[in-house]
Write a structure and sequence with these properties.
The complex is a heterotrimer. Chain A is an alpha/beta fold. Helices cover 34% and strands 23% of the residues of chain A. In chain A, helix 6 links the parallel strand 8 and strand 9. In chain B, strand 1 and strand 2 form a beta hairpin. Chain C has a domain of 215 residues. Chain C is built from 15 helices and no strands. In chain C, 57% of the residues are buried. Classes of the chains: A alpha/beta, B mainly alpha, C mainly alpha. Chains in contact: A-C, B-C.
Chain lengths: 251, 287, 318
């Protein structure tokens, strides 16, 4: 089996007496389409926060292609190739869609600190941002203020920003959250169109999306990994059903 | 002046700082609102008290009650009409609003009364000196210390033992959680704001002989009130108490022994402390 | 115009950007008796511009920016008084260096905090410097400051005129122009964009790999240096400096001026300072208390209804 691109070893996190992550040994393969599911409060977002560096673990380590990232802060991990989207949009609401993506691309290209050249002259940044918007069918909204967009399209901008970072690993935290089911296909299409080379981990409650998208599923309960396997294995797993899926799949 | 005398002098000043600042600490901890006009309420109260005694001949406690009630009422009016609109606003807007408010307060007082310093005419039983056994000390200062101690005990009892206090503590710790548990945070805040401003008013009047009282009072002491609140930790009565006493004593000591270096040391100490512990001595991390 | 074109052309000069400078140049000839007033105005614009960089663009709320104004003002004053260093241009550079260094050091330490704690610490730092200046009276003249300073003629030719302020006006205007060009360049650069990003959503900036604190400290230091230049101009133009350069009054004053004009809009400093100065000149001398009342009411009004100042009322959202 090839080495995973992202993995954790014995990852633990406690807030005082509250343990939110217990001994997590998680592996994300290259080019994976991996889903992370579990009841509310299972610790899924916590795991993403630990992977991205928003939280420091109490114990254990996070490794990217074998490199120990555990000591690195969030911004440095982004530079190593880990990007994420947030469960609740974290966008620059007052800026245009294009500007939002340009900021991300500029940071990746190392232009963010450049003081002398006007941002407008950086054709490399602007052109790439425009192209990225094209792949997500956002070109029409490029000039609009993000705050004015319908929520579903804002969610797309969230993904666009993450893609602008050209990550090796992409962590999507409930990308379809808050989107009416009539619009959720927008997100589905976007996820389906993600470049094959990127390893994608997606936290989701929408089982439709999970089973359509995932090549592998991890189930978390109470801060620990409860079960792991292919979609068929998980769907057939009685304990998983009991703990989480309930009767939804029986229907 | 020997040690006891210094401590008493410092404690008296600290008590005044405490009485004025405790309201600020609780409201900032409760609502996260940067109220730079808090000193203005203290000043208004001070003027109300001093003038009530001078012009209306009210007795001492009567004047204190009038000061408390008048300023508390004013603060409720301002809170409902103006402050409440800015709870969700950016910090900058809150800063601007409260600076504007304090300018209005200062100008109003200057226009109505004049720019001179006001003196508190002490009632007979507060004048002179009291024999405390070990030392004879200014009665007024002793009274202030007693008042401050009584207040901190009353507040402590209030916070720990009453339901109102429990609600405040809950809301300071976690506002959303408190709301979802049915606490009416809006009403809670109005009541607490009124109490805090009323206390500031009493502090402004009571402390008129220690901190002085003139229209520039709110801006002159702004940094001190903020230091006491920040060093103590937002929303912590015990924290404000300790910080106020500490600052009071330090300031008093320096005025006597290092008149030139004193305040500088306090600022430097505050800087160092807040950099080491941004939440203050007693505050909660990540609030 | 496509969004990309608009973004690419955002830094282009617009025709109306020449207006403030033409007006300022015209004022030299049209109002020869008001050049002292004009000089103070220009200095205030520069000071407000420096604050805009840190407040309007980086989103750092500070009530202590006068610390850097004062640092620059006193640097030039002390150099002139004690070291006989009276050459103005090099004095400016020295002031910028000192103020910038203090900005760098204090920014590095203070910008670990945010919100109320940061606001408090900026106040504390300024109060610290003010007390320090008060105490070191041998160097700084203490409470009375340093009156009657002498400065060498600019470029060896243009002497500072204590009566009509002719040289001072042109000098300050040219310095303002140079500093404005610098700020304009910064604001339109990718660095400036990233500051806007930090202001709008700092969480997001971390999540795109931006070295947030480094950027903030850098912006703070540059802003401090510019404020120091304004302070230096103040001392040179007025031939004195005292503690008023360092106090809460000055810090609050520049904040009011910037908010009045509109922060985060480059020209807010110009508009706010001009409107404030003109009104103050007309009203404050006669009715100082009523003036303070009026300013307070305007501030309350702005905070409640017109957060983006005069420019915000005129322009579309940025």
């Amino acid at each position: 089996m090839s080495a995973p691109i992202l993995e954790t070893r014995g990852l633990c996190k406690s807030f005082g007496a509250l343990q939110v992550a217990r001994e997590i040994d998680f592996r994300l393969e290259r080019g994976a389409r991996h889903a992370l599911i579990g009841p509310n409060g299972a610790g899924k977002t916590t795991l993403v926060n630990l992977l991205t560096g928003v939280l420091r673990p109490s114990e254990g380590s996070v490794l990217l292609e074998g490199e120990d990232l555990t000591r690195l802060p969030q911004a440095k991990r982004v530079k190593r190739g880990i990007a994420r989207t947030f469960q609740i949009n974290q966008l620059f609401r007052g800026l245009s869609v294009l500007e939002n993506v340009c900021i991300a691309v500029a940071e990746r290209l190392g232009a963010g600190g450049s003081m002398l050249r006007p941002a407008g002259r950086r054709a490399d940044v602007i052109d790439e941002a425009v192209r990225l918007l094209g792949t997500l069918r956002l070109e029409a909204d490029a000039g609009r203020r993000v705050g004015e967009l319908p929520y579903g399209r804002q969610r797309l901008v969230e993904i666009a920003i993450a893609l602008g970072l050209k990550p090796r690993v992409l962590l999507l935290d409930e990308p379809a959250a808050g989107i009416p089911s009539a619009e959720s296909h927008i997100i589905l299409d976007a996820i389906a169109g993600l470049p094959q080379e990127i390893a994608v981990l997606i936290i989701e409650h929408d089982m439709d999306l999970v089973f359509r998208f995932a090549g592998r599923i991890t189930v978390m309960v109470s801060g620990a990994i409860f079960a792991e396997g292919s979609p068929e294995e998980i769907a057939a797993n009685r304990d998983v059903r009991t703990v989480y899926l309930g009767s939804a799949l029986d229907a | 002046m020997d040690l006891i005398g210094i401590l008493l002098g410092g404690f008296a000043a600290g008590m005044v700082l405490f009485i004025v600042s405790v309201g600020l600490s609780v409201t900032m901890g409760l609502m996260g609102f940067v109220n730079l006009a808090h000193g203005g309420f203290a000043m208004l109260g001070g003027y109300a008290i001093v003038l009530a005694m001078k012009h209306w001949g009210l007795p001492f406690f009567g004047a204190l009650a009038v000061g408390f009630a008048a300023v508390a009422a004013l603060s409720v009016l301002l809170e409902r009409l103006l402050y409440a609109r800015l709870y969700r606003a950016t910090e900058l807007d809150q800063v601007l609003f409260t600076i504007g408010l304090v300018f209005v307060m200062i100008a109003a007082v200057t226009l109505a009364v004049g720019p001179e310093t006001q003196t508190l005419v002490l009632p007979q039983w507060l004048r002179g000196q009291t024999d405390l056994g070990i030392i004879k000390y200014r009665t007024y200062s002793v009274a202030v210390i007693v008042a401050g101690t009584a207040l901190v005990l009353a507040l402590w009892l209030g916070f720990e033992r009453t339901r109102y206090g429990a609600r405040i503590r809950a809301a300071v710790d976690n506002r959303r959680m408190a709301q979802s548990l049915g606490v009416d945070v809006g009403r809670l805040f109005t009541a607490t704001f009124a109490l805090g401003s009323g206390l500031a008013a009493v502090g402004g009047g009571l402390g008129a002989e220690i901190l002085g009282l003139d229209p520039q009072y709110p801006l002159r002491y702004l940094v001190y009130f903020l230091i006491v609140v920040a060093v103590g930790g937002l929303g912590r009565v015990s924290g404000v108490f300790c910080a106020a006493l500490l600052i009071g004593v330090l300031d008093f000591v320096f005025k006597i022994h290092f008149p030139k270096g004193g305040t500088l040391f306090i600022y430097a100490l505050t800087l160092a402390l807040l950099l080491w512990r941004p939440q203050g001595l007693f505050g909660r991390r990540g609030a | 115009m496509t969004a990309a074109r608009r973004l690419a052309e955002r830094h282009h000069l617009r025709w109306w950007e020449a207006l403030p400078w033409l007006a300022a140049a015209g004022a030299f000839f049209a109002f020869p008796n008001y050049l002292a007033f004009g000089t103070q105005l220009v200095i205030t614009i520069l000071f407000a511009l420096s604050l805009d960089l840190v407040l309007g663009y980086a989103g750092i709320i500070t009530l202590g920016h006068a610390a850097f104004f004062g640092a620059g003002a006193y640097t030039v004053g002390m150099l002139a008084q004690h070291a006989g260093w009276t050459e103005p241009l090099s004095g400016l550079l020295a002031a910028a260096a000192v103020a910038g260094a203090i900005g760098l050091a204090s920014g590095f330490v203070l910008l670990r905090t945010h919100g109320l704690t940061l606001l408090m610490l900026t106040l504390c730092t300024m109060a610290l410097l003010e007390e320090g200046a008060n105490m070191a009276s041998a160097l700084t003249g203490g409470f009375d400051g340093m009156p009657g300073l002498q400065f060498a003629p600019l470029l060896g030719v243009f002497a500072f005129d204590p009566l009509y302020f002719r040289s001072q006006y042109v000098y300050s205007l040219v310095v303002l122009f140079a500093c404005f060009a610098l700020v304009r360049m910064l604001v339109h650069s990718s660095f400036g964009q990233s500051l806007t990003g930090i202001r709008e959503n700092v969480l997001r900036m971390h999540a795109v790999g931006a070295p947030v604190r480094a950027r903030l400290v850098l912006a703070y230091a540059i802003s401090a240096a510019l404020a120091g230049v304004a302070g230096a101009l103040f001392t040179q133009a007025n031939a004195f400096v005292n503690l008023a350069a360092l106090g809460l009054d000055r810090a609050a004053g520049v904040l009011i001026v910037l908010i009045l004009g509109g922060y985060g809009r480059l020209y807010g400093a110009f508009v706010g300072a001009t409107v404030y100065f003109v009104l103050e000149h007309a009203l404050a001398k006669a009715y100082p208390t009523a003036w303070q009342l009026g300013v307070g009411l305007v501030l309350i009004g702005v905070a409640l209804f017109a957060r983006n100042g005069i420019l915000g009322l005129i322009q579309k959202p940025q």
